[in-house]
Amino acid sequence: MTQPLAAGSLAGKRALVTGSSRGIGADTVSYFANAGADVVVNFRNKAPRAEKLAAQLRELGVRALVQGADLTDNDSLAAMFAEVKQEFGGLDILVLNASGGMESGMAEDYALKLNRDAQLAVLDAALPLLGEGSRVVFVTSHQAHFIHTTPTMPEYEPVALSKRAGEDALRERIPALAERGIEFVVVSGDMIEGTVTATLLERANPGAIEERRESAGKLYNVSEFAAEVALAAVEPVPADNTRLIGDTSGFNS
After folding, report:
1. What is the C-alpha separation between 12 and 91, in angstroms, rounded?
2. DSSP bridge partners of 95
């Protein structure tokens, strides 16, 4: 894992990454901690994994708070942010990384509930803790970002549509966030090797990942994409509030 952020560059900053007990979220929160930030490791149902990661991050000399929360439950969100306020006093970076919708046994509207409604709910719950100069980062995929102009695999379409709905709803908040001095950026990446989504897609559509890899020339792995998410939290926000990571030649904007 190559550290994308300079050591000490986030000293005194406080960051929360949703869904950060594993995968892209875990690597992103680790990059922040390695740069000196105090961090919140958020999980839905993998407490031991979150606790283990937090213990490793504390060895870097930063504070690491572990917070379990169901992002689709407002009471659960309120409890998490109350704890963050008590421990950290506020937040400087909020990364909206957690998403889903391909899990089996969920209600039909679960993808929309998690990928749109819950993203707005997390932002609303976090707003009192986000001061001037803070930054919100929303993590998505090219398959979702470009879904209105480029079809995706049928297996992924409901998730892609719900992720795009979440992105659109969050973008509507940009003017209000700007009034408070809060910056917002979307980070969109291609399929990421080694993620749960990629694994589920491959299971539903064997050969899909290899086909996309050949088409794109390269697919980022988890730590490489997480590095881009971490950079999005500190580098200047593009004029269109969007950072596209990896090849986009197969997508129509």
Report:
1. 10
2. 17, 137
Nearest to 223 by CA among 82, 58, 66, 26: 26
What residues contact 161, with CB distance under 8 A and at least 6 apart? 111, 144, 147
**pTM score over 0.85:** yes
DSSP 114: I
Could you tell me which residues come within 8 angstroms of residue 13 by beta carbon, excluding any fewer than 6 positions away?
32, 36, 37, 38, 92, 93
Question: What is the helix, strand, coil percentage profile of the chain, to 5?
Answer: 45, 20, 35
Cα separation, 162 vs 105, in Å, equals: 18
Q: Are the C-beta atoms of 129 and 91 separated by less than 8 Å?
A: yes
**Secondary structure (3-state) at 17:** strand
Among candidate residues 60, 73, 65, 68, the one with its CA nearest the CA of residue 31: 60
For residue 36, give Cα distances in angstroms to 9, 29, 51, 62, 230: 7, 11, 19, 6, 13
**Residues 103 and 57: beta-carbon distance below 8 Å:** no
Rounded-to-integer distance, Cα 199 and Cα 212, Å: 13
- Bridge partners (DSSP) of residue 242 are 186
Please give the chain's pLDDT, 253 residues, in tens.
689 999 999 999 999 999 999 999 999 999 999 999 999 999 998 899 999 999 999 999 999 999 999 999 999 999 999 999 999 999 999 999 999 887 777 787 899 999 999 999 999 999 999 999 999 999 999 999 999 999 988 888 999 999 999 999 999 999 999 999 999 999 999 888 877 777 777 887 788 788 878 887 888 899 999 999 999 999 999 999 999 998 898 898 7
> Encoding tokens for residue 188?
């969109």
